[in-house]
Amino acid sequence: MYDLLLHLHSLLRWVILVLSLVVIFKSYSGMTAGKPFSAGDKKVGLFLMISAHTTLLVGLYLWVFGPYGLANIRNLGFGEVMKDRVYRFFAVEHIFGMLVAIVLITIGRGAAKKPISDGAKHKRTFWLILVALVIMLATIPWPFREGIGGVGHWI
């Protein structure tokens, strides 16, 4: 079960990254060209938010019941986890960074519902999703990250 959820969590990462790029591109082009905030813009933002929240739920399950999150804190103690960069990454940095990114994605989606101008919607969405993307890129356990990338058999 753990391995299946880990692979799902990793697969959903790519969905989120692609949707983030689509939202950023659409928002930037809407912002610079003065395009209206369309139903398509809203749908892509909604799919991004749904993907992010689904990934969050799977990730929380992995953090609580998997070997690298809460289990390490319980078994080793928080102080020891913070001394080891791999344990710290999975127990604290990854989850914190992703929570912040998902909050920004959710706020960005909320901007589409506000009674503000289309230009303001594009601008808010652009900046919030761009910052969320940078945070996600920094806190994903990429395979090339020394010591972190191979942990947990990430895809």
Please provide a written account of the structure:
The chain has 6 helices and no strands. The chain is mainly α and 155 residues long. α1 (2-33) runs antiparallel to α6 (118-139). The radius of gyration is 17 Å and the shape is elongated. The mean pLDDT is 91.
Summarize the structure in short:
This protein is an all-alpha fold.
Characteristic key phrases:
single chain, 155 residues, mainly alpha, 6 helices, elongated
Termini separation: 16 Å
Considering DSSP H and I runs of 4 or more, what fraction of the residues is helical? over 70%
What is the number of strand segments?
A: 0
Number of helices: 6
List SSEs in N-to-C order. Answer: HHHHHH
Tell me the Rg in angstroms: 17 Å
Q: Which structural category do the helix and sheet elements fall into?
A: mainly alpha
Binned strand content: under 5%
Low-confidence stretches: none
Mean residue pLDDT: 91
Q: How many discrete structural domains? A: 1
**Largest sheet features:** none
Task: Tell me, briefly, the overall form.
Answer: elongated
Q: Topology, please?
A:
Layout: H1 2-33, H2 39-65, H3 70-76, H4 78-83, H5 85-111, H6 118-139
Helix pairs in contact: 1-2, 1-6, 2-5, 5-6
